[in-house]
């Protein structure tokens, strides 16, 4: 891309390798070679920061990349108690309340119909026993004698059978399909995982967002930060894959490190999984541009050419050509608590119950208006 930018300006390219982007007064970096006049342009993935702007100028940005955190792929949860987590707590609470409400409805129906026919009366304990047996046994039990009481029981059976069958299907799915830990997709997720150590590169833009922060998610994370200088590249990526650390950097950097580990272990196929999980939340966005000397005469000419290359998709094409991932990310969406049925998902059973309750109310009104003979 530098050749495309400089060809029409009649500039000569002389390669000079440096170790990093750097900051002002840090020798041997892209900032200082330009500041000292040893080069006119520095090309690379350097983020535009206030510190660097003190020493050099930047052209218009040619690429925006997001910066986020990388952790290990979520592990499969192995728990002997997984069978008890199929329904959420509120759903089980609803089931208990439902049994009590239906039992009260059956008792109240018989209680108000008692003056019409004493044999239609159901004591409270008998009403509770009937609905409980319907839930637990799903077998033949003695039913109320009134039409309205039987309507209440009939719709109750439909709802209960629906809930039981849904539970059975959900349980089968949970025992048949793998279930994964909750993936770390944000700072909030990371704060909830005390077992994962956050790692940043000292004084880089990802570190700056945590500096002097003492409150909120940033403050909690800042108190736990560890600097990557403690690890080699291989040590760092292995700890990420193992789920021990979360590393803050760009997507490209994460994939490069995972690809490097794959190469080290003989997994050089582009179809090999990266074995890392890149969070969906952006921590910041890096605006990448060329670094040039202060007040350079060709800054505006280069800016004009960058805009042209970017508008025609040339920059995007070149970026992906020279930053090809050596491994691929695998998306695992199964999370802890995911797949649990909510009450909203069971609203169909509620509509059945409301319809049945309406018909039972109608029959109740008719029975109150006209005396009926004794029924079994």
Structural write-up:
With 376 residues, this protein is α+β, with helices and mostly antiparallel strands. It contains 14 helices and 9 strands. Strands 3, 4, 5, 6, 7 and 8 form a 6-stranded mixed beta sheet that branches. Helix 4 packs across helix 5 and helix 10 crosses helix 11. It is elongated. The chain starts with a helix and ends in a 7-residue tail after the last helix. About 1% of the residues have low confidence.
Mean pLDDT across every amino acid position: 77
Q: What structural category do the secondary elements indicate?
A: alpha+beta
Span of the ends, CA to CA: 91 Å
- Point out poorly predicted stretches: 334-338
User: Could you tell me the number of beta strands?
Assistant: 9
Radius of gyration: 34 Å
Oligomer description: single chain
What is the N-to-C succession of helices and strands? HHEHEEHHHHEHHEHEHEEEHHH
Shape: elongated
Q: How much β-strand is present in the residues?
A: 5-15%
Q: Summarize the biggest pleated sheet.
A: 6 strands, mixed
The helix tally amounts to: 14
Share of residues in helices: 40-55%
């Amino acid at each position: 891309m530098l050749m495309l930018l400089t060809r029409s300006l009649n500039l000569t390219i002389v390669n000079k390798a440096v170790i990093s982007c750097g900051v002002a007064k840090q020798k041997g970096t892209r900032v200082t070679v330009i500041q000292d006049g040893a080069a006119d342009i520095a090309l690379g993935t350097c983020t535009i920061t206030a510190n660097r702007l003190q020493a050099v100028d930047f052209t218009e940005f040619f690429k925006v990349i997001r910066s986020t955190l990388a952790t290990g792929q979520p592990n499969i949860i192995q728990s002997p108690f997984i069978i008890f987590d199929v329904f959420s707590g509120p759903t089980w609470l609803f089931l208990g309340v439902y049994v009590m409400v239906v039992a009260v409805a059956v008792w109240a129906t018989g209680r108000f119909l008692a003056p019409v026919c004493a044999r239609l009366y159901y004591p409270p304990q008998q009403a509770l026993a009937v609905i409980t047996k319907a839930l637990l046994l799903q077998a033949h039990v003695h039913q109320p004698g009134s039409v309205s009481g039987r309507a209440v029981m009939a719709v109750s059976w439909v709802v209960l059978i629906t809930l039981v069958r849904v539970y059975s299907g959900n349980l089968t799915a949970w025992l048949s399909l793998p279930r994964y830990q909750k993936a770390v997709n944000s700072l909030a997720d990371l704060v909830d995982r005390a077992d994962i150590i956050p790692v940043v590169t000292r004084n880089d833009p990802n570190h700056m967002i945590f500096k002097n922060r003492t409150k909120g998610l940033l403050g909690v994370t800042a108190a736990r930060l560890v600097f990557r200088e403690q690890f080699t590249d291989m040590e760092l990526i292995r700890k990420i894959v193992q789920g021990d650390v979360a590393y803050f950097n760009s997507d490209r950097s994460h994939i490069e490190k995972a690809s490097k580990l794959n190469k080290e272990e003989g997994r050089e196929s582009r179809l090999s999984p990266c074995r890392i999980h890149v969070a969906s939340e952006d921590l910041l966005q890096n605006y990448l541009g060329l670094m040039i000397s202060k007040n350079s005469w060709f800054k505006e000419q280069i800016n004009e050419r960058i805009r042209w290359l970017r508008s025609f998709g040339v920059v995007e094409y070149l970026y992906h050509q020279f930053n090809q991932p050596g491994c691929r990310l695998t998306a695992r969406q199964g999370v802890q608590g995911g797949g649990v049925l909510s009450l909203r998902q069971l609203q169909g059973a509620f509509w059945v119950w409301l319809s049945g309750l309406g018909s039972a109310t109608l029959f109740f009104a008719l029975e109150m208006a006209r005396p009926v003979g004794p029924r079994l």
